[in-house]
Amino acid sequence: MTATGTFLPKPGAAPLTRMIRAQAALETRMLLRNGEQLLLTVVIPSLLLVLFSTVDIVDTGADGSTVDFLAPGVLALAVLSTAFTGQAIATGFERRYGVLKRLAVSPLPRWGLMAAKTCAVLVTEVMQIVLLTAIALALGWSPHGDPLSVALLLILGTAAFSGLGLLMAGTLKAEATLAAANLVFLLLLVAGGVIVSLDKFPGAARSVLELLPISALSGGLRDVLQDGAGMPWRDLGILAVWAVLGLGAAARFFRWE
């Protein structure tokens, strides 16, 4: 005690940046300890990359090497599996078991929790990208293009899918989130240009599918990494719109319990 009625440490909430950093570290540790999520985020994309690159199962529509076509799509799939599917399921059950209810009474604001979860997703994605890139290079992948364009696509894609995943987890019951997130994952795997070119779909359907965030992410990455294209402004714009809408809706409608 330094003076009458004054105590140390000073009571009150920690600085917001410190709270977000601490929560992000906790979210990352929890994510890496979850075997089921690691299966979804690491094992499945790796197996798909190896399988479809080495075995002639589907017609990718690629003119050159199959792995040159598949690698960008699998990178997009890794973002989808971590930022959307894995995060939606984990957050949905945290909400069901009362974890989020307890966080709601802490000084951490709702948007701060979302920011922390997104940071944890980014850390996991870095490890995914390193692993998948190493596998793709071992399979003969020859990437091209500007690393800045790739980074912007991955960041905006993460923001878009993170917002949508949190929106789903914060508005639906845990069981509904589990079913819906896995269903969306499977549908986008097939219809999002990940392993099958969108050129294989009818013109009207392709026009709609190209507006999906997974199509913009996989298509943008493919344009840059396979074809060496410049900044994919159209795909970045689509992802930015989804990110603003998804994160905005999640911040507005997310329920702690």
UniProtKB/TrEMBL annotation:
Subcellular location(s) per record: Membrane
Membrane topology, record value: Multi-pass membrane protein
Cited Pfam families: ABC2_membrane_3 (PF12698)
Ranges for domain ABC transmembrane type-2: 36-257
An example Gene Ontology CC term for this record: ATP-binding cassette (ABC) transporter complex
Gene Ontology MF terms in the entry: ABC-type transporter activity
Keyword field: Antibiotic resistance, Membrane, Transmembrane, Transmembrane helix
Main localization category: membrane
Gene Ontology BP annotations: response to antibiotic
Residue intervals passing through the bilayer: 38-58, 70-93, 114-142, 148-169, 176-198, 236-254
Name listed for the protein in its UniProt record: ABC transporter permease
Species: Streptomyces malaysiensis
